[in-house]
Amino acid sequence: MKFFLSNINTLWIWFIEALFPQKCLICRKEGAYLCTKHKTFQPAPPNQVRFRYLDKCLASTKYFSQPSDKVVEFFKFKGFKILGDIMAKEMIKNISPNSLQKAIFVPIPLHWTRLLWRGFNQSNVLVLALQKQYPPLQICYDLKRVKRTNQQARLSKKHRAQNLEKAFRWKSSKFPSQKIILIDDVVASGKTLDEAAKTLKKLGAIKVVGIVFARGGKS
Ligand SMILES: [Zn+2]
What we know:
With 219 residues, this protein is of the alpha/beta class. The chain has helices at 2-19, 68-77, 83-91, 97-102, 112-118, 122-133, 157-164, 191-202; strands at 56-62, 104-107, 138-139, 143-145, 168-170, 180-187, 208-215. The strands form two sheets. The protein has a five-stranded parallel beta sheet. A two-stranded antiparallel ribbon has the order 4-5.
């Protein structure tokens, strides 16, 4: 069922993209999703989150600024998966050539109920867009979300940690020995990435780094 809905969504977006020419998400000028005037992303603010398990988190741009907000809005909530290519181009600047070759890239998974609702996992789209730019990139989908969590932003600080506790599980008997790079679209409190890193570190991961498109404020 979820694959059926996901395919319908893909077809629908393909139809929309074929029917309507690309227009700048900010000023509606025809020609590209970001025109020359609006294609520069603001640098990401420095990380203010103290992670317990994640070694570090690198972001390409600032959330709550333009054009990153519009890009995330259309990509994640309006299903314009093609914008993943623009985001990946920014993200890849934060990945060292050594990591590109040797690390394992793991997208942050969605619980199947949210996947059904959205039709696609934004992190999967981003990791595939990164691979398009660097084809030897190794991707692993063995990290699964086994708990349906509430949106972190809607919870009190006290309930956020409980909400994500044991949310992830590694679904394979094999565990990579390389450095692991977790891919996600946006980081705010960092709790999701840290919980995923906790799962991986408990299984023996030596280094887990997060690479995200945009960083919002600490909340
Ligand atoms: Zn524009």
